[in-house]
Amino acid sequence: MTQEDGELDSLVRKRIRALRVAQGWSLEELAGRANLSQSSLSRIENGRRRLALDQLVTLARALDTTLDQLVENAADDVVVSPMIDATHGLMRWPVKGDPGMSVMRQRMTDPPPDNPARMRAHPGREWLVVLSGTAVLMLGHRRFRVETNQAAEFPTMLPHAIGAEGGPCEILGIFDRDARRGHQKDAGADGTEADCEGTGSPFTSGPPAERGPGSGR
């Protein structure tokens, strides 16, 4: 066994115990759920029994996780730098655990469009939190003020638009796979977000955000 294999073996055993404790289960309870004897489970957690694939599959199922997550090794790329679209004032981070999900940050200065025809709808869900300032979320026929440190989550099949109120605001948004695809329809030929003025979609509505020197946004 190589040093790397030994580290992974130890990590998996610690993970099994940590997940069990997090559920508030005793050795006896998890053993029963995984069709193992209590002594076998104890030896697995303590490193006195070889890890068998069939047992790991059963334990993963009993712990409400997957085999891949149970044996996932510690990643070296824990810190991720954003992809910056300076033209539209966007910063985007991919979510490693779910390649279909994206996190975006944008500074907005303009209010949302008044014309409902400029609002946009597409499959998916979006979640956003206001980092600073006050945002206005237009959702169907309703208008929501979202203050600093408040969040909003909504289905994007409702026509929606977002903008600033009373001055600039900064927003951090999370897009699921379907919502991200909806935004990608407006992507330019170079793969960056197109200028979607008139679409009313969060993070793409209105003109490019203002950026101060060295802001990176």
UniProtKB/TrEMBL annotation:
It comes from the Bacteria. Residues 181-217 are annotated as: Disordered. It holds the Pfam family HTH_3. Residues 16-70 form the HTH cro/C1-type domain. Transmembrane segments: none annotated. One of its GO terms (cellular component) is cytosol. GO terms for molecular function: DNA binding; DNA-binding transcription factor activity. Keywords: DNA-binding. PANTHER family: HTH-TYPE TRANSCRIPTIONAL REGULATOR (PTHR46797), METHYLPHOSPHONATE SYNTHASE (PTHR46797:SF1). This is Helix-turn-helix transcriptional regulator. It comes from Streptomyces coelicoflavus.
